[in-house]
Specification:
The structure holds two protein chains of two kinds. Chain A is mainly alpha-helical. Helices cover about 80% and strands about 0% of the residues of chain A. Chain B has two domains: about 250 residues, MetI-like fold, CATH 1.10.3720; about 90 residues, no CATH class. Chain B has a three-stranded antiparallel beta sheet with strand order 1-2-3, with no helix packed on it. Chain B has a two-stranded antiparallel ribbon with strand order 4-5. In chain B, a hairpin with a 5-residue loop joins strand 1 and strand 2. At the A-B interface, helix 1, helix 6, helix 7, helix 8 and helix 10 of A face helix 4, helix 5, helix 9, helix 11 and helix 12 of B.
Chain lengths: ~325, ~350
């Protein structure tokens, strides 16, 4: 197990090096270096500029700059300064990532809370009305682009007034008690979480259904039924446990996918997460923030995939000892 | 594996009613895009400064007296509230549609011009899908925008598939360090979160540019993203073919390696490539929509489905003038759904055992 973990961790290194090289390259392509850009701000004095020029080695050749960039990144978590927010990029992104993780977690609840029961239900009534309705709904959900479902739900929220039309908190958040805050947050989360979760929900649901059908065809299930075990018990005690196994590795994968998938929902619902910050940074011409966001989201995605692999190992004894 | 669970529940083979319907819809969409200047009554940029946010006009065949007309007509609308841009239909003023009418002159090809349009109205403008903030006809913009949005799909596809086939084919056939290098690059691209990468790549270009250059930029960005997934699968297919008798025979007969790869091996991957292409196109279309929606893709006054959707971003517009959302959203949804159904159908046709595959997410 430990050797697997080490091997798997080592495998992430090329990806992380690759993405750092890519962000470095794109920053070189973007017009002007940021110290020069910062210099256009009269509020920044020359000594600070000189200090930053040195910190990022802008007076050195490019390969040296890249090494410095890597060193700053790894040892100081230094991604440079945001030009428009006058804060270190890391500080801006940390807060945004937190908000994205809140949204992604809510979407994960939507995805898994519905995919598993609906998948089991559809499989249990194979070929019946429930199965067809659920399968058709899943196919439909897969076909609707998030941008469209997001805008449609936004329109719905604006028309009915049942949901807030974006943002994360209502006015008066500061005066609310803990319970009121949780309720307020939940109301703001509802629609974006549905938008983020719909596509993963549909595809997990299909997998759950297929996995359940595979298991229901096995001999031990037939044996249990022949012994007169009640159908509910066959489904949930005997079949579900084994059917869940392939889904476990999907859990980590889905978590990573939800973080990158929340991008569009954040933009449409003004959720102050990583995606929205990235778009704002692009529009405000703040390339360092954009690159920082690419790096950070990649790390989250890689970590999600790693977790998925680990969970699968832990859950499946056949793999655990391999 | 159980069948069903797909929108196109193909039996033995997938070329069924759903698939044929989807192919028909797509043929229609591309025909409308190709003939946009004719099918649209106005150009994409033509404004009407007195009819901002004009609502859609329904077609009628039966007039107020109950008499039936073979020629459809719409009711003229007048501005009821100029501060809110509210309109009211004037039942006393039916406007019959004219077909094959003269209107703005346009060029089919350089040098071949015409001023005939499929439909129009005398002395006034008709807005079957409504008008936008500048009084531009949404139906006209939708058709002209389709040239951009559907065209981007094809252009991006051609480029990224050329790269995917070339690099994937080389990696699979040659093996060794070429294989290792190409595959590591693919893995890197595939492990990056897509939309963040799109935005990051976008920073390498100037913030705004003329629509022709913007078009090219979008194609480049999407191609950079798109080739890797294909290259990886092509490489696998090519590797599987490499030791087969027909390849060995061609090599033994002295065909050089480029010829073996291009003439013998790659054609055998064609059916897979066709399916992959159909499945990939919605991604390209949505890529353009996403960038233009954010205002960093195809820019006004040129029309694209993305920047039309971008007009519906503001909440006030969305609530008061929902047709600004409905028109582009309907077009995007139709195109994406049709490509999905067609892709599913083709996959079933090629692999009759049927795979229960959702989109990998």
């Amino acid at each position: 197990m430990r050797s697997f973990l080490i091997r798997r961790l080592l495998q992430t290194i090329p990806v992380l090096l690759g993405v750092s090289a890519l962000t470095f390259l794109l920053m070189q392509l973007a017009p002007g270096d940021f110290v020069t850009l910062m210099g256009q701000n009269p509020g920044v004095n020359a000594a600070t500029l000189e200090e930053m020029r040195h910190r990022f080695g802008l007076d050195q050749p490019w390969y040296w700059q890249y090494l410095l960039y890597l060193r700053n990144l790894m040892f100081h978590l230094d991604l440079g300064e945001s030009l428009t927010r006058h804060q270190p990029v890391v500080v801006v992104l940390r807060e945004a990532l937190g908000n994205t993780l809140i949204l992604a977690s809510a979407a994960a609840v939507v995805t898994w809370g519905l995919a598993i029961p609906l998948g089991v239900w559809a499989a249990a009534s194979r070929g019946g009305l429930t199965d067809r309705v659920v399968s058709l709904a899943a196919a439909f959900a897969l076909a609707v682009p998030e941008l469209l479902s997001g805008l449609f739900l936004l329109l719905l929220a604006a028309h009915t007034g049942w949901f807030p039309v974006g943002g994360m908190h209502s006015a008066g958040w500061d005066e609310m008690g803990a319970l009121a805050r949780a309720g307020d947050l939940a109301r703001h989360l509802m629609l974006p979480a549905v938008v983020v979760g719909a596509v993963p929900l549909a595809s997990r649901l299909r997998q759950m259904r297929a996995s359940m059908l595979d298991v229901l065809g096995l001999e031990y299930v037939t044996a249990a039924r022949a012994r007169g075990v009640p159908e509910q018990r066959v489904l949930f005690r005997h079949a579900l446990r084994n059917a869940l196994n392939p889904m476990i590795s999907m859990f980590g994968l889905t978590l990573g996918a939800l973080v990158s998938g929340s991008f569009i929902a954040e933009v449409v619902f003004s959720w102050p997460g990583l995606g929205r910050v990235t778009v704002e940074a692009l529009l405000a011409e703040d390339p360092y923030l954009v690159m920082g966001a690419l790096l950070m989201s990649t790390v989250v995605l890689v970590a999600g995939n790693l977790t998925g692999d680990l969970l699968l190992r832990l859950a499946d004894p056949r793999l655990r000892d391999a | 594996m159980p069948e069903g669970g797909r929108l196109a529940p193909g039996r033995a083979w997938g070329w069924n009613l759903w698939t044929r319907g989807a192919a028909l819809v797509l043929a229609l969409l591309y025909a409308l895009a190709a003939g946009a200047p004719f099918f649209a009554p106005y150009s994409a940029e033509s404004m009407d400064r007195e009819r901002f946010y004009h609502p859609p006009q329904a077609l009628h065949w039966r007039d107020a007296a109950g008499a039936f007309h073979l020629r459809p007509f719409v009711y003229a609308m007048r501005l009821a509230d100029s501060s809110e841009w509210r309109y009211a239909a004037d039942r006393a003023q039916p406007v019959p549609l004219e077909f094959w009418v003269r209107g703005e002159r346009y060029a089919w090809l350089p040098g071949i011009t015409s001023d005939r349009h499929l439909y129009g109205a005398r002395d006034t403008r008709v807005y079957l899908l409504g008008a936008d903030a500048f009084g531009r006809d949404l139906w006209s913009r939708l058709l002209h925008g389709a040239r951009v949005s559907l065209g981007v799909g094809l252009a991006g596809l051609v480029i990224s598939f050329s790269f995917g086939l070339a690099l994937g084919g080389l990696a699979g056939y040659l093996g060794g360090w070429v294989d290792a290098a190409v595959m590591r690059l693919c893995e890197l691209l595939l492990s990056l979160p897509g939309l963040y990468l799109v935005i990051a790549l976008r920073t390498a270009f100037p913030p705004s540019m003329p629509s022709g250059r913007a078009y090219l930029m979008i194609v480049v960005i999407l191609a950079v993203l798109g080739w890797a997934a294909l290259a990886r699968v092509i490489r696998g297919l090519v590797r599987a073919q490499r030791g087969l008798d027909y390849v060995l025979a061609a090599e033994a007969l002295g065909a050089d390696r480029a010829r073996v790869l291009v003439r013998h091996i790659l054609p055998n991957t064609l059916s897979f490539v066709m399916v992959a292409a159909t499945v990939a196109i919605p991604g390209y279309i949505l890529g353009e929509v996403f960038l233009s929606f954010l205002g960093v893709g195809v820019q006004e006054p040129a029309a694209s489905w993305g920047n039309m959707l971008g007009q519906a971003r503001s909440l006030r517009v969305l609530v008061s003038f929902p047709w600004l959302l409905a028109a582009p959203a309907g077009a995007i949804f139709t195109a994406v759904l049709a490509f999905n159904v067609l892709g599913d159908g083709l996959r079933d046709a090629l692999d009759p055992r049927g795979r229960q595959g959702g989109k990998p997410r």
